[in-house]
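note to self: dont lose this again. the chain is below, predicted strucutre after it. 244 aa total, dont forget to put it in the shared folder this time
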Amino acid sequence: MVPCIVGSNPTTPANDFKNSILPYGIAVDQAASLPSPRGRGSQTGSHRQKSRRSNQGRRWGLHLVRRNHIFYFRRRWPQPLHDVGAPEFLSVSLRTEILSEAVKQSADLLTQIETGERKLTAELTRAPGSEWRTKVMIREMVRESVATMLARLEAPFDADESRAYVAGCEQKRQSVDNALRTRDWPVAADLGSSAAALAGLDEDTLALPAIAREILIKTRSLLDVALRVEDSCDDPLTLGGAVA
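---
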């Protein structure tokens, strides 16, 4: 038998996972309504009714549960997929009351799901331009820049060195503006190389337009803050809105 879709929603963030892993739908909103396991009931005649109720919530192995006499496949999503939008549980109606049929369907389903999960997890790990890697890189760029500003505030003042530093920042900012204007994305590879190494991003990835533009814009903001700090000696940590 082919499992049916229960409570699926094509607009949910988990829909891509469902389509990637299974050829049929996954119910994502049934976890709360599924019965919890209960203890085995007494086998005496005086407790037969209680025993029948206990069987409704009995776990049968292979991620099987039974509700209203129908077997369901129920399994928790792996944490890496849950972190990027998958629901906590998936639940699929196997549309059968026969244990042997449910066991076979569950075993086949589990094989497909585990194969799909391994593939998706590997893709998330390898994806060089993944959102979380980019965020890590940008945070590291901000941290490095703020650390430099703080170090300069604590160092002895040298007028000639300060003028050279300001001129360097202004020249670098002009280069960033030109790169943004002309879409010269490889410039971003030099600006974000040290932070990108910590995030596991290579130089080719830094030259991708979406990532390069983010690097250039953040670099421009940090240079503006650096020039303000050098001029006014303000604490860069108080300028959180500008470097966030």
